[in-house]
Specification:
Immunoglobulin-like, 712 residues, 18 helices, 8-stranded parallel β-sheet, 27 strands, Glyco_hydro_42, glycosidase, Rossmann fold, 9-stranded mixed β-sheet
Length: 712
């Protein structure tokens, strides 16, 4: 395994490794040593080359303070290595040992209700704690020094799913570190008071030592600027906690690659220091779990969404944990992949940018909070269908990896993503509206169903690769991005600007000019005269999305919608469609055209969606939020004229497409996400690398069947 220097962050950045990481997370500490050699032999027979281990074992690495014991893992690594399996080690800081929390109770997190965490489970310690950071550096240094010359240790994962169980802390150390963060950010307390709007509700401070953490609803709403800065602080604290470890590992062995495995993507700024410190990122994908929690269109569409979001942060990635079977903790149990589906889900991850994948886990635990989280091997140590599917997937990868590595995922329609401030700004003051991601999901789902190459891209990336770029109401607009957008449009790109974009500044203040601000108004030829809320389909009135948990404004029970009859419609492309969530009344400059008009109530005949030609391209402004029907109309009127068409026309329901490309090759992934067979017409000419079939026109796929077509 050879590592090269990573390229700058980009949605199209390839991985900087020369092989595909293929294997499982492995927990030799969970079974008797008599299992180890048999496990290694079966991993090798399956075609695996790597395991990941050690992330929850600090109490074994350091059984009491200053006493390190590497014997168990030394022997496990040796058994695996001699069999041909390399090891990725993890810094074990997600589960500090009991002696640490007993001797230093100040490291424990404190929740928003003032309760101090008890020891146990995971992420019970506060990453803002200087004491925890000291011990984190110490265990990382000891492990790095011990394994620096071990040929079987090829890389490291920092911690485990940082901030997934919990990201907030209201401890004394968090308060102290937050104040120090603010002292560096603001020159004077007056600057902080201005940023947080201290003249509203008498929230001004006399000095930094008075600043409190933003306890929710204590007793009423907080300043959006205060909340935004708190989450900026948490993101920086998380990056610094990780950097402590990265710095030690880099100094110890330059050949090691270093990554982190993402969980819930909370309070981490991936395009900031956190992502720049790493070779690449990993994303733990459990499609059925995420879909049941978030309901984003079925677990196949949810997986595609999660992978595309992940790729927007740093480019190609690995999947350190890919669902292999039923997943469970005491409060939930996911659906179980059907025969063939586990392999299909793994290939979906590869199709959308994974250059390494590990099935979670090698074997299930017999004790603890995940005894029904199944693995490749069953509880009785027998290999059954999941092992055989993992083996088939490994064979797939060995067949395609020479053509796969070095490619990135093709995108025709980019959706603005991966911006920490805009993710957080919405949360601070949602006013009952969908988040930028929720709005983006409508467009992403439409493209997924049609087979359009769609992904998430930050405005600082190379937009010239895109045929169109959609901004889903980013309220915080950085004017430094506008010249890049102007150049993109002038050179033939199509820019689509969503409602409410550019309406707040970096302090979460409403801007003091007509939206969407001077630079975007000039580019789009639009100014917003007025905006207002519309009832969403199935909406329940005022508190549908953003009602407080408690306090003077909380209703005693859900309120029925008193305004459900207030439906607003738009005439666009010869159709009348009902829209939801928001209306804007637009003022247009002389060269801006109307392509969608409000068609009822007081807004009747006012522009709702506009188009302005700029150089070789055009700028579309959408004065409302997306619905499925509106996304379809924009496809016909905007995307298609921009040259965006499905990768395969007439795509059958349930068939997923993705295109990975390099300068000299194109790989089209065609994946059947349903249990029933499908015939895909209009497939481009090429060779299915998995079966060796020559194709030109029609492709038959069995239930959960997969093809990777090397296009002619």
């Amino acid at each position: 395994m050879r590592r090269s220097q990573p390229a700058p962050l980009s949605a199209w950045r390839p991985l900087n490794l020369d092989d595909f990481l293929l294997g499982v997370p492995h927990y030799p500490e969970h079974v008797d040593e008599s299992y180890w050699q048999r496990d290694a032999d079966r991993m090798k027979a399956a075609g695996f080359n790597t395991v990941r281990m050690g992330e929850f074992a600090w109490h074994l690495w350091e059984p009491y303070e200053g006493k390190f014991d590497f014997d168990l893992f030394d022997r496990a690594i040796e058994v695996l290595g001699e069999t041909g399996i390399n090891t990725i080690l993890c810094t074990p800081t997600a589960t500090p040992p009991r002696w640490l929390t007993a001797n230093y109770p100040e490291v424990l997190r404190v929740d928003r209700n003032g309760r101090r965490a008890s020891h146990g489970s995971r992420q019970h310690c506060d990453t803002t704690s200087p004491v925890l950071r000291q011990h984190s550096r110490r265990i990382t240094k000891a492990m790095a020094d011990h394994y620096k010359d071990n040929p079987y240790v090829i890389g490291w994962q920092t911690d485990n799913e940082l901030n997934t169980t919990v990201s907030e802390s209201f401890s004394d150390s968090a308060a102290l570190e937050f104040r120090n963060f603010l002292r560096h950010k603001y020159d004077t307390i007056g600057d902080l008071n201005f940023a947080w709007g201290g003249n509203f509700w008498a929230t001004a401070y006399d000095h930094f030592d008075q600043v409190v953490l933003p306890f929710p609803m204590a007793p009423s709403y907080l300043s959006p600027g205060h909340v935004q800065d708190y989450h900026r602080f948490l993101a920086i604290a998380t990056a610094r906690f990780q950097f402590d470890q990265v710095e030690i590992l880099r100094a110890t062995n330059q050949d090691w690659f270093i990554f982190h495995n993402l969980g819930n993507l909370t309070d981490i700024d991936f395009r900031g220091q956190f992502g720049q410190d790493l070779d690449f990122i990993g994303f733990d994908i459990y499609p059925m779990l995420y879909d049941e929690f978030r309901r984003t269109g079925g677990h196949a569409a949810t997986q595609a969404l999660q992978m595309d979001v992940c790729r927007s942060y740093t480019g190609n990635f690995i999947v350190p944990e890919q669902a292999s079977g039923l997943g469970s903790q005491p409060s939930f149990t996911t659906m179980n992949p059907e025969p063939g589906e586990m392999r299909r889900m793994a290939l979906s991850s590869v199709a959308r940018g994974a250059d390494g994948l590990m099935f979670f886990r090698w074997r299930p635990a017999h004790f603890g909070a995940e005894i029904y989280w199944m693995g490749i091997v069953d509880h009785d140590d027998v290999t059954r269908r999941r092992y055989e599917e993992a083996k088939q997937f490994a064979s797939d990868i060995h067949t395609i990896k020479d053509k796969l590595l070095g490619t990135s995922v093709h995108i025709d329609l980019g959706i603005a993503g991966a911006d920490f401030d805009n993710q957080e700004a919405h949360k601070t003051y949602p006013i009952g509206l969908p988040s930028p991601l929720e709005d983006a999901i409508v467009m992403h789902r439409h493209c997924y169903k049609r087979g359009i190459a769609c992904g998430f891209v930050h405005p600082e990336d190379d937009l010239s690769k895109l045929k169109a770029f959609y901004i889903p109401h980013w309220v915080m607009w950085n004017n430094n991005w506008t010249p890049k957008l102007e150049s993109y449009v002038e050179n033939g790109g199509t820019l689509i600007v969503g409602a409410m974009t550019g309406t707040r500044d970096e302090n979460n203040h409403i801007i003091r000019e007509q939206a969407p601000g001077a630079s975007l108004s000039k580019l789009s030829g639009v100014k917003v005269e007025e905006f207002g809320r519309l009832v969403a389909k199935g909406g329940e009135g005022l508190f549908q999305r953003s009602g407080p948990e408690q306090g003077m404004y909380a209703p005693p029970s859900p309120l029925p919608s008193s305004s459900s009859e207030r439906r607003y419609t738009i005439d666009i492309g010869g159709k009348t469609i009902t829209v939801e969530h928001l209306y804007e009344l637009l003022e247009l400059s002389g060269d801006t055209q109307t392509i969608g008009t409000w068609s009822n109530r007081f807004a009747k005949d006012r522009p709702a969606i506009t188009s302005r030609k700029v150089g070789k391209g055009r700028v579309i402004y959408v004065g409302t939020y997306l619905t499925e029907e509106l996304a379809g109309s924009l496809d016909e009127l905007v995307l298609s004229p921009a040259g965006i068409t499905p990768l395969v026309a007439d795509l059958p329901e349930g068939v997923e497409l993705s295109l990975r490309t390099a300068d000299d090759r194109k790989l089209l992934f065609v994946l059947n996400t349903l249990e029933t067979a499908a015939i895909v017409p209009g497939v481009p000419a090429g060779t299915d690398l998995l079966s060796g079939r020559k194709l030109d026109g029609s492709l038959s796929l069995e239930g959960y069947g997969c093809a990777v077509i090397h296009l002619n």
